[in-house]
Amino acid sequence: MTGTELAGDNGSLNVAIIGHEGHGKTTLATALVGYSGLRGFSGYRFIELFDQEHKPVDIGDMTVAKQATSEDHYSHTSGYSEETSGFIRLMGQVDGAILVIAANEGVMPQTKEHVRLAREVNLRGLVVFMNKMDIVDNELGILDIVEMDIRDLLNEYEFPGDEIPIIRGSALKAVEGPDDPENEVYKPLQELVNAMAVRFAGKRNGG
Ligand SMILES: Nc1nc2c(ncn2[C@@H]2O[C@H](COP(=O)(O)OP(=O)(O)O)[C@@H](O)[C@H]2O)c(=O)[nH]1
Ligand SMILES: [Mg+2]
Q: What φ, ψ does residue 100 adopt, rounded to 5°?
């Protein structure tokens, strides 16, 4: 078990970052924390479930978060549990989730599994970040096909697949970005923050 505990937090939104291994969950959390620091806003806590290395709470990421923002309300923790029940317990406490899907690979087995689990806990707030846009070539219209697959998957599990925002961007470019929050590499992150504000607020599971 991870020791990650979400209950009792003082007002910030708890956001799970879910998706297939290697699709960019940790990178996106780092990017969001960094961008939050540049913008000086607060109010989100990002929790990555099923960390790539299957290790418990990552103090390194927490430290990065604190340095980047100097805001106690921002953090990024990595949680992993051998047991699906642990995932479900944590998922049941979040206000919403960002489903990260690498544009070059599309829907993968863990993408499906996490959407299935999100349905199991009746997660209401969900947005999709289509990541790694910096390395895909859209000449064959591949991105539209990936996006259709994602919407089909969401609909299959009774999420509003036609409405859920699918934001295209590059977490890595944002992590490597300059100090100017107006820089174009941050546009997808701002879209993501706007989407979370609309879709997650007031949706805390279990009241
Ligand atoms: N080209 C590119 N690589 C990325 C991007 N985001 C993440 N990566 C890389 O993909 C790999 C896996 O990322 P990570 O965040 O650890 O994935 P996780 O397993 O979902 O947490 C790392 O080598 C990242 O640097 C992106 O937007 N573009
Ligand atoms: Mg990770």
A: -95, 125
Residue 164 CB partners (closer than 8 Å, separation 6+): 126, 127, 128, 151, 154, 199
Ligand whose nearest atom lies closest to the CA of 23? 1
Summarize the confidence of residues 92-115 as an average pLDDT: 92
Tell me which of 30 and 130 has the higher pLDDT.
Answer: 130
Contact, 14 vs 47, CB < 8 A? Answer: yes
Average pLDDT rounded to a whole number, residues 105-111:
94
Nearest CA to ligand 1 atom 26: 132
Distance from residue 102's CA to the centre of ligand 1 (Å):
8
Q: 13-200 has which fold?
A: Rossmann fold (3.40.50)
Ligand closest to the CA atom of residue 55: 2
pLDDT for residue 101 is more than 90: yes
Residue 89's pLDDT is 73
CA of 28 to the centre of ligand 1 (A): 8
Instruction: Name the residue among 117, 86, 91 with its Cα closest to residue 205.
Output: 91
- Output the six-digit token pair for 184: 């174009």
Q: Ligand 1 in contact with 23 (CB < 6 A)?
A: yes
Amino acid at 7: A
User: Which atom from ligand 1 is nearest to the alpha carbon of 169?
Assistant: 27
Cα–Cα distance for residue pair 201/13, rounded to 1 Å: 8
Number of helical (H) and strand (E) elements in the chain, helices listed first: 7, 6
